[in-house]
Amino acid sequence: MSAASKLLVICSRNRFRSLTAEKIYEGLPGYEVRSAGTQPNARIKVTEGLLGWADEIFVMEKSHLIRLRQKFPEALAGSADCGPSHSG
User: Fold this and answer.
1) Which of 47, 72, 74, 81 has the fewest CB atoms within 10 Å, measured from its CB?
2) Chain centroid, CA 41 distance in Å
């Protein structure tokens, strides 16, 4: 049996978008899901530890990716691709 994929979903304040995504995927077989926010007033703030925990990171906006790369360059250094979770 393979280990669950660890998904981290990120938005600004971790109150609506990323929290909703976490709740949607919560309990699905094969996934462990957490969410966090990039802003100081986020419900749960993104940390280097959360980034290291995740197998895959999804951001809601390009600005979230930019903030992550600025604040946690070492934690994302090994990432093959860390980009917005939508096309376009």
Assistant:
1) 81
2) 16
Please say whether the dihedral angle defined by the alpha carbons of residues 81, 63, 40 and 60, taken in this order, is positive or negative.
negative
pLDDT, tens digit, 9 for 90 and up, residues 17-73: 999 999 999 989 999 999 999 999 999 999 999 999 999 999 999 999 999 999 999
pTM of the model: 0.84
Burial class (CB in 10 A: 0-12, 13-18, 19+), 57: buried
Domains belonging to the chain, first-starting first, are 5-76 (3.40.50.2300)
